[in-house]
Amino acid sequence: xxxxxxxxxxxxxxxxxxxxxxxxxxxxxxxxxxxxxxxxxxxxxxxxxxxxxxxxxxxxxxxxxxxxxxxxxxxxxxxxxxxxxxxxxxxxxxxxxxxxxxxxxxxxxxxxxxxxxxxxxxxxxxxxxxxxxxxxxxxxxxxxxxxxxxxxxxxxxxxxxxxxxxxxxxxxxxxxxxxxxxxxxxxxxxxxxxxxxxxxxxxxxxxxxxxxxxxxxxxxxxxxxxxxxxxxxxxxxxxxxxxxxxxxxxxxxxxxxxxxxxxxxxxxxxxxxxxxxxxxxxxxxxxxxxxxxxxxxxxxxxxxxxxxxxxxxxxxxxxxxxxxxxxxxxxxxxxxxxxxxxxxxxxxxxxxxxxxxxxxxxxxxxxxxxxxxxxxxxxxxxxxxxxxxxxxxxxxxxxxxxxxxxxxxxxxxxxxxxxxxxxxxxxxxxxxxxxxxxxxxxxxxxxxxxxxxxxxxxxxxxxxxxxxxxxxxxxxxxxxxxxxxxxxxxxxxxxxxxxxxxxxxxxxxxxxxxxxxxxxxxxxxxxxxxxxxxxxxxxxxxxxxxxxxxxxxxxxxxxxxxxxxxxxxxxxxxxxxxxxxxxxxxxxxxxxxxxxxxxxxxxxxxxxxxxxxxxxxxxxxxxxxxxxxxxxxxxxxxxxxxxxxxxxxxxxxxxxxxxxxxxxxxxxxxxxxxxxxxxxxxxxxxxxxxxxxxxxxxxxxxxxxxxxxxxxxxxxxxxxxxxxxxxxxxxxxxxxxxxxxxxxxxxxxxxxxxxxxxxxxxxxxxxxxxxxxxxxxxxxxxxxxxxxxxxxxxxxxxxxxxxxxxxxxxxxxxxxxxxxxxxxxxxxxxxxxxxxxxxxxxxxxxxxxxx
Length: 851
Hints:
Layout: H1 3-17, H2 33-42, H3 47-57, H4 65-82, H5 102-106, H6 166-173, H7 180-184, E1 190-193, E2 208-223, E3 228-236, E4 241-247, E5 261-271, E6 274-278, E7 281-284, E8 295-298, H8 307-321, H9 331-336, H10 342-350, H11 355-385, H12 396-404, H13 412-425, E9 432-437, H14 443-455, E10 460-464, H15 468-482, E11 494-497, H16 503-515, E12 520-523, E13 537-542, H17 550-557, E14 564-569, H18 575-579, E15 586-590, E16 601-604, H19 610-622, E17 626-630, H20 640-644, H21 652-663, E18 669-672, H22 678-689, E19 695-698, E20 711-717, H23 724-731, E21 742-746, H24 752-763, H25 767-778, H26 781-784, H27 788-791, H28 803-819, H29 829-840
Parallel strand pairs: 4-6, 9-14, 9-15, 10-12, 10-13, 11-12, 13-14, 16-21, 17-19, 17-20, 18-19, 20-21
Antiparallel strand pairs: 1-8, 2-3, 2-5, 3-4, 5-6, 5-7
Helix pairs in contact: 2-3, 3-4, 10-11, 11-28, 13-14, 14-15
């Protein structure tokens, strides 16, 4: 028996077993007609038989159970008589009827899986209308509809849906759709607006429109030796006619019967001077319009499913389950912020009634996401502040003496930062500071004075950096600031431990830390290895904090008993991010540069002007200065033709060889990139630091921390491939001495839009302004570092650049937190559960310490 008839037989049998309650298929038996019609035509069933099934089942929902039984028995009797291998359908046998819950009688039908016993039913991969339902042997248990709340049944797998078996379930899993709840929150990527109806005589070329008319004629023919099938229809609405054409969709002809009213949606094209529509969406006017005559959602897709099939599936799930979701936001929060209720927001964001409804729905969902983020951060901040920590008080005269030892005067921003650190250390609660300052603003000095305040009481401090180069530079700086002259520490009390440190020396350092003899340890990830223990770790400092993960930061803090924490970054954090993803930290901003800091002249050079940059390099080296040349890639991996093209992305290894042999043969060029071994990197940097090499060819590995006061030129190839914040970091590597410094940006092409973006580097040296521009243009990835995957994954609607929305959500979060910090009041319990679920998906509960 043909697969389409096997399927139809099982639908009929399930209806009989259920007492003809029209619940064998979600939404009623008529919902399966479109996909079944496509399969039936593929099986070449008689046209009269297909028409009989369609006409008798269109109004199945309006019939009484007795009439439904009569219709199904009559249809199958006809199939049995006309199809040779179709078995008879048994009469309905008495079975124990399961009572329908009262709530189910009042609401839409619950989701039930259609039982199909066929073992060889194929999965349709290229279907005319939508994929065929899949086979499944076992019958799932009957499921009652839950009361109005967030239903636990939303955790059910998508395979409970009719037509979604294990194969389609695996396909949907590629889109992140594993449960019914996933489908509710699988939002469209865009919308096609077919809601604007126009008469045919007013259509214009290029418009996306919806037309309602009557079929005047239709034809179906094959061309190109039968390889291409063309279906054409002439549609009239009384004002004019338009020709619609479909390619290789012969089943469309069945919908183009003369006199039938249809809805067409698509783009107006032109052929031989006449307006046409090529492959428009088509629906009969009496059907529910999901694909035409409305604002149509367009979802992300993967292989083996179509937009029409997924849209129908989403409609079934959304219209049934969205109204059953309880709104977690209290009524006063919704009214104060003019928010749509959650059920309506989910309905409207999937199948909107208007553009205004889309905006209102998206705003509601975005507000909710930011609110959850804010509440979680407030909870973490409170949990941190409720802990106790060692009190470190220092006399003012002692602090004045330490500042007086410095070889320079503190800026007002540095003085303010030192005062904040001093206050935090004396508070009795663990400090949890994010110290952010532009390149060269003097964060290291603030960190050094904080360390001095702790080690004055014979406690220990640790400073962790992401690279051995940066750790070595901190080691040198801390020795100068804390042990030179009459420093507070002896030189042997400050040690460095990185991956390249010999094992014997590491063992000595471990013993010194455990005994309390070493007061300050500076290093990389080696500091968080299990053998490292401290006698009394009371201050942890993490530089370039976005390079470390949550677990790494927590591992270092775990070496002490609620130690104070300072995390530092030279990447200015935009205000919107400071209010959200860094809301658990107390921000300490250093927005003032030392007076002797050079302003770096920045210029954009087009690729054809590269020689001008080379001339500047020769002149600067001749004056005794040094140069950085940065490339986006380590090595080329493309073909010779691509490499030789004008727009090819240049790579450090290849360009190092070319520059050394062809451009600067008289100079010594060094090479630095991430694939070098640790000792090779150290050797390259030592040679550059000592002046043995004049030009350092590198990738972005020198983005942070490299301090070469003699470097005066930063030339960046492929500058369009970097964000403004990262380019600003590169620029900060030069101009650290007294000589004039230059930053040259060379994009890969002369694209005006890209060069306009880069022009921001020319107009300002303010890292905070550049950070705001970068966030708006490129998103939050450059700023979040390892926090990125833990936060933006959850933000489907909210934008971390929408400062107005963020500030509104923050106000509501603070008000809620002030009134009910544990969200234990009855009106907040649903919110508490949803908040825990939101953070739980990140693996970080609201009270977890994720600083």
